[in-house]
Design a protein that fits this description.
Elements: H1 2-26, H2 32-129
């Protein structure tokens, strides 16, 4: 039985190589001139593609540097300006509140002084009458 398997595998190998040889005879091989022409065509297409990719890379880099990054900077500057304006508005509001508080405090102190002066006058007039 092992001999039968060996014989079959040998026949299959012979058959495979016969078919392989027959297929290679059917192949139309290019001439050396065709090989050179095709090689030059491939290299040319690869070089043209490389130049296009390089040019696009430079273009996108320039757009990124001068376009998108400058837009980002403008947005940052505007937001910083708006933030600064908001902070300045808040500072002004606080200053106004402090000024109002000081004015109110000064007014209260003046009122207290007027009241004290009036009380002193009343006390003095009472002392004069006695």
């Amino acid at each position: 039985m092992a001999k039968d398997i060996e014989k079959k595998s040998k026949k299959e190998n012979k058959h495979f190589f016969k078919d392989f040889k027959a297929e290679l005879k059917k192949v139309i091989w290019p001439t050396p001139r065709q090989v050179v022409n095709n090689t030059v065509a491939v290299i040319t297409i690869v070089l043209i593609t490389a130049v296009i990719v390089f040019a696009l890379d430079l273009l996108f880099k320039a757009i990124n540097t001068y376009g998108i990054n400058s837009i980002k900077n403008l947005v940052r500057n505007e937001s910083t300006t708006e933030t600064t304006e908001n902070v300045q508005t808040d500072v002004n509001a606080v200053d106004n509140e402090i000024d109002a508080e000081i004015t109110t405090t000064e007014g209260t102190e003046n009122q207290e002084n007027v009241v004290k002066d009036a009380q002193n006058e009343v006390v003095e007039s009472n002392n004069v009458q006695e």
